[in-house]
Write a structure and sequence with these properties.
Layout (H helix, E strand, L loop, with lengths): L3 E7 L13 H13 L2 E9 L6 E5 L2 E8 L1 H20 L10 H18 L8 E5 L6 H7 L5 E5 L7 H4 L5 H8 L4 E4 L2 H15 L2 E2 L4 E4 L2 E7 L6 H8 L2 H14 L3 E6 L8 H14 L7 E6 L8 H21 L7 E4 L5 H10 L2 E4 L8 H9 L7 E5 L12 E3 L4 H13 L2 H17 L2 H13 L2
Parallel strand pairs: 1-2, 1-5, 2-4, 5-6, 6-7, 7-10, 11-12, 11-14, 12-13, 14-15, 15-16
Antiparallel strand pairs: 3-4, 8-9, 9-10
Helix pairs in contact: 2-3, 3-4, 8-12, 9-12, 10-11, 10-14, 12-13, 13-15
The chain binds GDP-alpha-D-glucose.
The site of GDP-alpha-D-glucose has 20 residues, from helix 12 and helix 13.
Length: 455
């Protein structure tokens, strides 16, 4: 059996210093690494001179991390990954920064990853690279003479061709993807936008059996939606910690319906639009006041990037305005919380909610939507309101699908969800639940690695 080598910007496998539960991706990949005697490579998150990777094995999983010099972190991670590719790939041209230094840093760090990792690769290892931080890594590894089976999975959307061509080095970036044998996207939609680029910009062709050819090179390009560790999450939702969180929510709700939002604080998640939609609901349905409240959990992320500081300040002021305008002596319409909660507690909170409000403006997949579905009580499930622009909408199509840019759409969906009969809630929830259970994160991992093993 071949070893599996996973490479991502950060390693999220549990280690001796961070032994706790780490989310579905870490669980699924750790299980695969444990079985296949593999290694997970990535940046340690620390700044310093890059030396040999620091190998450690915890709970049967080996991780290997390197430090990066401060300038590399600024140009590669804060710069090209988070100020250039992230906004551009989420259709936010206005937030995208084009700096030659960022692109230089990106290539430098990808080359560094290649140099450091290549000596540790054995000839029949299966290599799986993750996400937009490391697009050129496959090419760098080929430069080192590696002929291994190489796969790449993109966790975020693939942008429309006309948007992508705003990136000065777009062709170079996409050319690098052709060093891989298998490239995976979250949805059919991102796959088709990629095909469009290949045909229009590269003069390539799309063949049978997911094959894509440009020049003399053919690779397999697939759609393979990521899922959650459904069994773990279902068990989570009825655990003691979840029960405690559930009771805490129910008691503090005093009969009011809870609407829940959970997101990293990121401008792609449509938090401002969500608050505006909720405000529209409150303005237009004065009779419903005091019967509902919105709990938004939003732990800060990427706080060194200016666009994240701006969105945070905007949400602080918008949440203050909403509460100032609508709150009563015994009712606060919006509880806005910038801290993170343990996964089991989140599961209990999802279960206590009447509505899950998931309104990204663009999202590769969105796992919160799937976690919300998994956590519901089958006899009396809550309603998922989901942005049609989340990758998850392809699978969770019996949710109330909305346009997150429209405050009226959001307000109407809240109204509809609160009035929905139990029968309709169950009928909408069941197919979503079956999807979340069947197309789990383990299914996703197999979907990708099976494809890679066929090479
Ligand atoms: C990228 C893509 C794609 C959030 N708050 C807390 C907490 N979370 C957890 C959620 C969920 C995860 O963070 C967020 O996952 P998402 O999928 O929603 O979003 P991104 O972080 O943007 O992830 C995305 C994903 O990659 C996987 O491919 O779906 O489209 O953008 O699991 O529960 N977890 C805990 N406390 C919190 O307060 N413990």
């Amino acid at each position: 059996m071949s070893r599996l080598i996973v490479i991502s910007n950060r390693v999220s496998a549990p280690t001796a210093d961070k032994p706790g539960a780490q989310g579905g991706l870490a669980v699924a990949l750790s299980a695969a690494l444990r079985e296949a005697d593999g290694v997970w490579f990535g940046w340690s998150g620390e700044t310093g001179e890059t030396g040999e990777p620091n190998f450690q094995t915890f709970d049967g999983v080996t991780s290997a991390t390197i430090d990066l010099p401060e300038q590399d972190v600024e140009e590669y991670y804060d710069g090209y990954a988070n100020r250039t590719l992230w906004p551009l790939f989420h259709y936010r041209l206005g937030l995208t920064e084009f700096e030659r230094e960022f692109q230089g840093g990106y290539e430098r760090v990808n080359r560094l990853f290649g140099d450091v990792i290549a000596p540790h690769i054995q000839s029949d290892d299966l290599i799986w690279v993750h996400d937009y931080h490391l697009i050129p890594l496959g090419w760098m590894l080929r430069q080192q003479g590696l002929t291994n089976r190489l796969g790449f999975f993109l966790h975020i959307p693939w942008p429309p061709t006309r948007l992508l061509t705003a990136l000065p080095e777009h062709r170079r970036l996409v050319d690098a993807l052709f060093a891989y044998d298998v490239v995976g996207f979250q949805t059919r939609e991102w796959l088709e936008t990629f095909h469009d680029y290949v045909v229009r910009e590269m003069g390539g062709s799309i063949g049978e059996d997911d094959l894509v050819t440009v020049g003399g090179r053919t690779i397999r390009v697939i759609a393979c939606p990521i899922g959650i560790d459904a069994d773990e999450f279902i068990a989570n939702a009825t655990s003691e910690q979840a029960q405690a969180a559930y009771t805490r929510m129910v008691e503090s709700s005093i009969g009011r319906s809870l609407i829940i939002g959970v997101d990293r604080l990121d401008y792609s998640k449509g938090l401002e639009e969500r608050f505006n939609g909720y405000q529209r609901y409150l303005e237009t349905r004065p009779d419903a006041h005091a019967n509902v409240y919105l709990l938004q959990i939003a732990p800060p992320s990427r706080a060194t990037v200016e666009s994240y500081q701006i969105i945070r300040a905007q949400l602080d002021s918008l949440s203050g305005r909403i509460n100032g305008a609508f709150a009563d002596v015994d009712w606060v319409p919006l509880r806005y919380v910038n801290q993170s909660y343990p996964r089991a507690a989140l599961a209990g909170i999802y279960r206590a909610a009447r509505i899950g409000l998931v309104t990204p403006l663009r999202d590769g997949m969105n796992l919160v939507a799937k976690e919300f579905v998994a956590a519901q009580d089958p006899e009396d499930p809550g309603v998922l309101i989901l942005s049609r622009f989340a990758g998850a909408a392809e699978q969770l199509d019996s949710a109330l699908l909305i346009n997150p840019y429209s405050p009226d759409d959001i307000a109407d969906a809240i109204d509809k969800a609160l009035a929905m009969s139990r029968e309709e809630r169950v009928a909408r929830w069941r197919p979503m639940f079956e999807n979340v259970r069947d197309e789990s994160v383990i299914w996703w991992r197999r979907c990708f690695t099976d494809s890679l093993m066929r090479v």
